[in-house]
């Protein structure tokens, strides 16, 4: 960590170039010969990424940023704040500290927080940043977190882990045993130091696959930000063997949508019906949860088809997702498409439909955008249909 990067003139140069093209800046001559040019460019690129994701860091003076991938992989402040709402108690140890955003928010609720980071340079950088952020109840340890657990030999109210994939050679196959640290292999050891473990995983992890590797799971939190699932949070409690609670959260600019249910609890199969006056599309967190019957039952909504995951009603309801008023419904065929949509402009969504959005746009010359929303789907009679809608929320 080169503290010369904090020179007033260098910091002013970094701030002046926020949002600028790094590739173009790289062609310029370094105006500060005492500091590596690549390091300065990295600060510009990383701070640019932090502007929306980490506004507290962005607005605090003398923050030093790591390589850009660390900023890309770290939690946003909004998801970190949600994580902090889950935990309670006096002490927490984070075994995979990273850039420390989660710990910053844990420290607002927990008296003593320990940040473990295997990369000594990143650990030193985070310690420096916590000082700039006036955080005094987080202690940073560099080195292997298992060794730190043994050395400290303490009992913690919570252990927090954000395991990282070792490599991408398996493509989309994602198992916790392929991550560092190997949580399934070490879970019994973790429970000797805490009765509660919180694990963050990427949304690519299949919930059933995670449950096959983990034991004592009490709650799974599915967290979306602006309708994009960002992380799964697994709450494990020592010796727990009861029902598994699913909590879906979609954090929006002006509100937060939530929907909770008990996994695999008996739920009646939803009623199917043809499209009525209103159409409902669950948010991405609910879609990831698989609680399609549960959301239908809770809101007393009919479903268009067993596999379409679109819902309808005659009366307007508040719903965790997008809500539309159906203006027209017609069968998907050449005559109807030429009459209503060919060479028009519309927002297109497909659900349980053989053609992709791209294929539909190309075939019928439909431009993207506008105030018309079209759903291409399958109804209860297995007919391919098109719903033309206006958006309510």
Question: Which properties best describe this structure?
Answer:
3 domains, methyltransferase activity, Rossmann fold, SAM-dependent_MTases_sf, Thump-like, 15 helices, 393 residues, alpha/beta, globular, Arc Repressor Mutant, subunit A
Would you kindly provide a brief summary of this structure?
The protein is α/β, with parallel strands linked by helices. It is built from 15 helices and 18 strands. Strand 17 and strand 18 form a beta hairpin.
Shape: globular
Query: Largest sheet, if any?
Result: 9 strands, mixed
Mean of residue pLDDT values: 95
Number of helices, counting only DSSP H or I runs of 4 residues or more: 15
CATH superfamily (homologous) name of the largest domain: Vaccinia Virus protein VP39
Under the CATH scheme, the architecture of the largest domain is 3-Layer(aba) Sandwich
- Given helix and strand content, the structural type is alpha/beta
Q: What percent strand?
A: 25-35%
CATH topology of the largest domain: Rossmann fold
Unreliable stretches (pLDDT < 50, length at least 5) are none
The Rg value, from CA coordinates, equals: 25 Å
């Amino acid at each position: 960590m080169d503290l010369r990067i904090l020179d007033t003139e260098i910091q002013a140069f970094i701030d002046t170039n926020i949002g600028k093209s790094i590739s173009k800046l790289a062609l310029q001559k370094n105006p500060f010969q005492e500091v590596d040019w690549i390091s300065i460019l990295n600060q510009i690129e990383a701070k640019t990424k932090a502007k929306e994701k980490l506004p507290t860091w962005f607005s605090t003076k003398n923050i030093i940023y790591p390589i850009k991938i660390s900023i890309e992989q770290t939690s946003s402040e909004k998801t970190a704040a949600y994580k902090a709402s889950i935990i309670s108690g006096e002490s927490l140890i984070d075994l995979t500290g990273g850039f420390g955003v989660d710990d910053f928010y844990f420290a607002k609720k927990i008296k003593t927080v320990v940040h473990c980071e295997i990369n000594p340079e990143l650990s030193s950088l985070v310690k420096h940043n916590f000082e700039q952020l006036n955080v005094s109840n987080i202690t940073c340890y560099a080195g292997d977190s298992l060794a730190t657990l043994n050395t400290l030999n303490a009992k913690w109210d919570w252990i927090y882990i954000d395991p990282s994939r070792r490599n991408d050679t398996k493509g989309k196959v994602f198992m916790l045993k392929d991550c560092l640290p190997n949580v399934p292999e070490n879970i019994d050891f973790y429970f000797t130091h805490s009765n509660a473990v919180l694990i963050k995983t990427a949304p690519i992890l299949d919930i059933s696959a995670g449950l096959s590797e983990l034991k004592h799971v009490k709650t799974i939190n599915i967290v979306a930000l602006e309708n994009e699932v960002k992380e799964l949070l697994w709450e494990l409690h020592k010796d727990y063997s009861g029902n598994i609670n699913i909590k879906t959260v979609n954090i929006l600019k002006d509100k937060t949508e939530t929907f909770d249910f008990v996994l695999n609890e008996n739920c009646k199969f939803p009623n199917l019906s043809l499209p009525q006056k209103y159409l409902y599309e669950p948010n991405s967190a609910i879609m990831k949860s698989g609680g399609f019957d549960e959301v239908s039952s809770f809101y007393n909504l009919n479903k268009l088809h067993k596999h379409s995951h679109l819902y309808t009603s005659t009366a307007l309801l508040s719903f965790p997702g997008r809500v539309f008023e159906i203006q027209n419904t017609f069968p998907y065929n050449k005559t109807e498409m030429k009459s209503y949509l060919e060479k028009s402009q519309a927002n297109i969504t497909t659900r349980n439909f053989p053609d992709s959005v791209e294929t539909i746009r190309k075939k019928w010359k439909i431009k993207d955008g506008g105030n018309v929303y079209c759903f291409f789907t399958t109804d209860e009679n297995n007919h391919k249909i098109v719903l033309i809608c206006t958006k309510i929320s």
